[in-house]
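Summary for the steering committee. One of the milestones for this cycle was to obtain a three-dimensional model of the protein with fe (ii) ion bound, which we needed before selecting residues for the alanine scan. The sequence and ligand used are listed below.
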Amino acid sequence: MLDLLVHNATLPDGRTGMSLAVQDGRFVEVAAGLQAAARETLDAQGLLLSPPFVDAHFHMDATLSYGMPRVNQSGTLLEGIALWGELKPSLTQDALIERALTYCDWAVAKGLLAIRSHVDTSDPSMLAVEALLEVKRRVAPYIELQLVAFPQDGVLRSPGGLENLQRALDLGVDVVGGIPHFERTMADGAHSVKLLCEIAAARGKLVDMHCDESDDPSSRHIETLTYETQRLGLQGRVTGSHLTSMHSMDNYYVSKLLPLIAEAQVHAISNPLINITLQGRHDSYPKRRGMTRVPELMAHGVTVAFGQDCVMDPWYSLGCADMLEVASMGLHVAQMTSQAAIRQCFDAITKNPAKIMHLDRYGLEPGCNADFVLLQARDPVEAIRLRATRLKVYKRGKLVAESPAATAALHLDGRPAQTSLLR
Ligand code: FE2
């Protein structure tokens, strides 16, 4: 007997009337109209069943700290970094863990079951690193949390930066991070990329750097990142996060750069909510959007994900772990408004970040983990349009969150009694 049989689901690829059979936490069969005995059945009622949302770029050590010790007055990236520096001395491990666990509750409620979080390794006490390693252990039954050793103050610019990053990796942090545009010079930035990629190659780790989070078109550390990826044989294992300077670069240079990124199989993560609020701050008008060239990267075959980056922290006062909001902002900023492009934006919060994070057994095929979200929408486009309610969230075939359907009662003569905003 099956553990769970879902029937009448619509899948993101457009197949309808689909059944998904679950045994021992995995999908064992996915086909139209399956009939089989099961301990639990779920009628999807023709609604969209998606693999869980994945956020490949987040900062869980800073989340839910908005207003501590003060708010970011200028709204800039650099004041945010300074503010985080002011907050760090007063951080306690218990409070940090508590905030992170609260965020993870929100994430599960929103069907977000895999998160790559950067963790600041600049502090020699390793307080944030140890706190997030503890969070990773605690949430493992319901969230796959991957940690990136992130030298927020610059691996070369801050005293002991390199040693602290290596200590974080020794403690069990999964991915090598970096922030080359924050080093003192372009040369130091390039040197940091080389050093960090060599550390990753030697340790068999993935790489994910904050790269060129700047409106300066001469910030070209992505070029060095692709070069080091090729040189060290790290193809498919390296990600450039943000890449906002690419927005402002000369088109001729970008025409050379995009094939280099594709050739090195370097992945890209854009963070639309943060990019649209932090970039262009030194502009008057016209004011640049600052987000990287998402459709152009995709057209070159680069795997691109949209990340949340920040929720209620020194850089951003809003957000709620809703990856559909992230995708919606991404498609607006990138003007990805065709039906095909909107579906690409849905991929950018599901299967693309799963590929970037090298998640094992992600998807809806037989053999994949039975992790999924039932949405109050009929297809990915409607899911983004409505920031659809996550009716049911399952992890390894077990229900971990549910929300009531969103409907409004109407009191209008001659009109229906209620609406759910579905077409
Ligand atoms: Fe970030």
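Key point for the committee: The longest strand covers residues 112-120.
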